[in-house]
User: Fold these one by one.
Assistant:
Number 1:
Amino acid sequence: MTDQNWNSLLQHQIAWHWTDHLRARLDGLTDDEYLWEPTPDCWNVRPRGTGTAPVLGGSGAMTIDFAMPEPDPTPFTTIAWRLGHVIVGVLAVRNAAHFGRAPTDYQSFEYAATAAGALAQLDAEYATWLAGVESLGESGLARPCGEAEGPYAEHPMAALVLHINRELIHHLAEVCLLRDLYLHTGQKTRQEAS
């Protein structure tokens, strides 16, 4: 058996999906797609003062819809909402907790009003995450996550990296599916209405 460099394997797992599948599929995302609501009563990212969800997160001109506790069933979420979740809840909060990013959360984050703005935020948080994972080296992957991860504090950083990889793949695949749905139904419906 040979020694493995687990850090590079974990980086490669997400980098391969990111570069060849996920991020490339987001190129050309339009503002219309970004904010498109395929069902009534979606959770979305909206101009401040226009949201009706019980909780409206965000510190800037845009807010993101939430409720605590979540209703059952949870409202359908838009591309903008899903990107907001990935940017903040999956990446930025972890970057702040583990890799020196300024603290942030759903309430204090400034959500993007445009697709281009959201993709720039996504790229920046992803780059910070990937550089942070690389900086862990092999020994850093074995250390406990710490109190920032709540009940998972004693789990190794490798478990967190695997979890974040899974979250990125899962949620960005949903965004890609919504883009396909928009292309085949939403865009046509909007053209017919005009």
Number 2:
Amino acid sequence: MLRLGHIVTETGGESMEQKGITLWFTGLSGAGKTTVARLVEERLNREHRLRVQLLDGDVLREVMNRDLGFSKEDRFMHIQRAAFIAKLLTDHGVIVLASFITPYQEMRDYCRRQIENYAEIYVKCPLNVCMERDVKGLYKKALAGKIDHFTGISDPYEEPVNPDLVIETLAETPEESAERVIQYLSRQRSIPGLAAGEHL
């Protein structure tokens, strides 16, 4: 049975309502946003069979935002489109894990205004560590002047003013970070049948 804003799931023969929420993972490239979001997605799917959708900034650019560059204006349009998708899914009871650099506070404020049940997760990691992790070689290209408007190098990253949760990926493993996100969802009563503080 599907109702706007809720999805009814079956666990142990009891019907429970799943509430939609968007967890917006923001942070520098290489901070670990998508890695942590994927671990959260896997756990919620495997251990509690919840409706979860991962929205990744790179993937969204490939499939529907190829017309956008990386200027501040284009980045804002990229985020506006992502927020629209996240809002629709959240309104229909899906847990949305949105992984986007979202470098400007005004962009994150926009998302919070647009999405009723929204939580901002700051994936914090020092720039030098993100540069060391540089799996795709993007920082190297940006430093060489081959990529314009690269966050942290030629464009700024404004640290979140008041995030709902901060995870520091230099100080903890991806699994530990994912556990902290799970516990946040538990405290928000976004996991049906899971008492606050109870581990999955």
Number 3:
Amino acid sequence: MDQEKNTRYLYRAISGISEDFSGRLLEVPVGTGVLTMLVYKTLPNSDITCLDYSIDMMEKAQHRAKGLELNNVKFMQGDVRKLPFADENFDLVISLNGFHAFPDKEAAYSETFRVLKFGGIFCGCFYIQGENRRTDWFIKHLYTPKGFFTPPFETLDSLRKRLESLHKQVELEAVESIVCFTCKK
């Protein structure tokens, strides 16, 4: 992916976060926080929870947040298959490059939907199959055997159908093999 496409996918993936967002936000998985901590710096009135299964990844995100003096961001170790939150608890749920790695995608979709408030936004991005043969080859022969990605993988059509069955508004854009989405519950 060239720089222009990379910038487009990153911008599109977080486009569900309004500039004046001041509600409750859940990011799952947070990973190292490289894509979101600078965005969170611009949201001082938000209550942000970052969750990840990997303690090592989360510690890197915590280090980033500390360096940016983010006081409105808290971190939790946890599993997307069983989120430790009440129903309809968040105004926004964001997932960047996570769903292609989750071993139980059905539970991940169900749980992120469950904790999202009615009228809330679900946005993010992840790998989808069938948009770029070279990327599909790398995923199949390198990333899946190493355990970085876990099948089954969505296609653009299967994801559209899945998200439209859950949310009342769905916007999708494929940038190479990454799908960016913004949905309203």
Number 4:
Amino acid sequence: MFKTNNLVKIALLTALTTAISLLVIIPVPAMNGFVTLCEAGIYLSAVLLGPAGGFWVGALSGGLIDILSGAPQWALFSIIIHGIQGLLVGYLYQKLTSSFKLSMSLVLGSASMIVGYFIATMILYTWPAAMASIPGNLVQTVFGSLVTIAMLKGLKKTSFNPAKEGN
């Protein structure tokens, strides 16, 4: 299944994603809300570790963030949504061959998160609340995508090159 090396990477990236999501909260006054770096951690994990790593980091960090932030009603939804998000980004990043594979992976991963939380919000609350969740989730995923792209560009300039790392 997983080698010890990969389990350690998954555990470290889960802890990092959870920590940065709970500690780095950027207010967005226009939406009366905030964004975190959750997506950046999930996307980076998916690119570096592939679909399985992206799934586990997304699922584990998504659930932990909700439980630790006092929103346990969202935990099961977040486990499923962020797990699928990480799996999808990791899978597409490995399978697509175009020069836009990172962008396409991030766009489709973002779409899965927005749709997932739209459905979850309809289940937990109402149709209008689900509609109102779209702009905030869009900002969250765009921000996470931009941070991921910047982090990957920075990593490529170092001796650590994600494209050459094995899973």
